[in-house]
Structure formats: C-alpha cells, structure tokens
Amino acid sequence: MKLTVLDQPRTHEHRLVGQVEDQSYVSNEVQSHMKYFVGIKKKGAKTVTLVPAHQLFSLVPHRKESDIVEERAVDSINQQHIRLAETFGSRKRVTHLRKAMTNRKASDEMFAASSTVIDDKIAESADISDLLVKAVRPSELLPTCDMEATTPETAYPLEGLMPMDHSAEFETDLLVEVAGSSEKGTEKWPEFVVARFKELDRIPSDAMKATQAMLLLMYTVYVRLSVMQGRDLNDREKTDAEMAVCPMPVWYWLKDTFMTARKGKRIMFNDEQRKRIRLHAIAIALHIANFDIDDATPIVADLKIPARDLAELARQMGCTVTAGRGKRKAGGTATGGRSSIKLDVLPLKFPEKRRGRARQ
Questions:
Q1: Residue ranges per structural domain of the chain
Q2: Residues 94-117 pLDDT 10s
Q3: At what angle do helices 307-316 and 271-288 cross, to 10 degrees?
Q4: 289 SS3 class
Q5: What is the pLDDT of residue 210?
Q6: How far apart are CA 245 and CA 172, in angstroms?
Q7: What's the DSSP call for residue 340?
Q8: 311 closest CA partner among 342, 268, 345
Q9: Could you report the per-residue pLDDT of 172-205, keeping only the tens digit for each?
Q10: Which parts of the chain are beta strand (E)?
C-alpha cells in the first residue's frame, strides 16, 4: 500500500491518503511531526481512520519526584480515554468512564482523609514498642493470666483455673490413700496422676499433700471432661460415673464456664470449648509439676491428642517446649521421644498467630 501526504496550505495541515484494492485510508488531521499512526476500522465500514499514536497511548513520563506531576499525568490519561470514547465509542461508554473517574477521585479523597485520622491516633497513642507488644495478645481460650507477672504461680493463678471457694470439697484423702497403697482400686486414673503417686506419698506435710491431691483431682476432672462427647454429658449415668471425683459445686462451675446451654440441655462441645478445657488441664499440670514437666508423654495419653498438638498448645500459653528424640526399633519404625514443658519466660510472651488452622 502506498501512502501519500498532501499539503493543505489554507489550513496549514497535511492530508494522509492511502489506497489499496478494497480499502482506503484517510486522516484529516496530520501534522508534519507525526510519525506513527494507528488504523481504526469500524464494523461494516470500508474506510480505515488513521489516528496519531500519541492520542491512543500515553507518552507522559512517570516521575517519582513530584506527586503533582503524577496526578496531572493520571488526569491526562483519563481525559484521553474519554476523548477516545467520545470519538469511537458509544454514549453509554462515555458515561461509564465519567462515573468511574468520579468514584475514583472520591475514594482517593476518602482514603487520604482516613489515613490522616489513623496517623493522628497512632501519634497520640503509646510509642511503637508498646504497639508491637499489644499486637500479640493471648488467645481468648487461654486460662486467666497476668501478662506482667514475674512468677509462674501468679502468671496462671489457681483462682482462674478452678473455684477455690469449693476446693476443700475434693475428697483428697481418697487420692492420698490410693497413692500410698499398693492396690490402686477400680478407679482408672489419668497416666499423669498415676506418675505422681510416689511423689504425693513422699510429701511430709499433710497440708501440702492435701493441696497436691486437690490439684491432681482437678486435673482428672479436666482430662475426663476433655474426652467426653455431648451425648455423654446429657446421659446422667455416664456423667455421674465419669465425674464421681468432682464435687457438685465444682461441676456447676464447670458447666457455667465451659458448656453451652440450649433449652435447658447441654449441647455437644465445639472445638474451641474442648481446646479451652485442654489448656486449663495443661495449666493445672504445670502447677502440679512446679511449672517444669520433664516428661509430657502422660499428658499426651490423657488428652488423647498427638504430641505435636500438645506442644502447640503449650507454646500458645507462653511455655518453652523441648522435644526429645525418638528411638528407632529394629523393624525401622520410630517411636516418639519424651518432650518437656516449662514456664520459664516471664513476663509471659505469646507467639504470633500462624496462618492456617492447627489440628486440635
């Protein structure tokens, strides 16, 4: 195809004309400095209109030095889009572009205003170090804790783990008698409790022995409750059998604290309620072991959860978990090693929340 530029002295413009067998190319606004054109052909027409390339593509340089230059460049590009729509598009398209520009400006102004308000609030609040500390808050499922405590006993006080007003109603003498006897009776105790029988029997003071037995019984209640199902809670016989070691005032406190009532009946635990009970059981176990559990394997068996899940729960409480190495049997299978749980970092520091959902 041959293109010819015709000079028009009267209008000081040039006319670009091209001709092929079945198409003609015409542009009425051609300047001598224009080098690149884009042909636009409407559907059904035999004429292709040549448009200077700079009218279709923005050639404004993007500079970071000035925000004003950027805003002007964006406005220029938007105006070019509207002019193209007015020339080649429909009225509906032009209206759509104008509304989009108006909404974009309104949203930019709103964002700028909100950013200013947020910056002012941050400046009025505590310094950045305090904000970072407040960003990592303990889980709402954790037992009552004191984030400024400097001793483990006050970090997770017993008052937040059990109703201390009714602690004397536990039958501690029964557990003390079982711990000192060679016959353990028909009651099936949690493995963590059985592992503490010898230690309980060696305590010289009767008062200290009664306190330790009370904690072991409360741990037993939490463990049995954590593995019960909703249908078991609605079965009076099963509940009485599993919670025989739990005084009635303590049982009422447990129902009000951990269970959900609906139409006078207790419904099945959800995952959060069960996790909360497990966290309380771990806190009681820490009190029993003076906040240094050298072997957490019995707790894994009592709560019926994998060792990695127990370690994750302990870390959420701010504890230090040390995993032991497992042994490899002759057949090639590996056994899990014993892990320890300590509350040795005070004041409490909680880990950041991980993405995804951990198994419970």
A1: 1-57, 62-125, 152-342
A2: 787 777 777 777 777 776 776 666
A3: 80
A4: coil
A5: 93
A6: 9
A7: E
A8: 342
A9: 998 888 888 867 666 789 999 999 999 998 999 9
A10: 2-8, 13-19, 24-30, 37-41, 47-52, 261-262, 265-266, 292-293, 320-322, 340-342
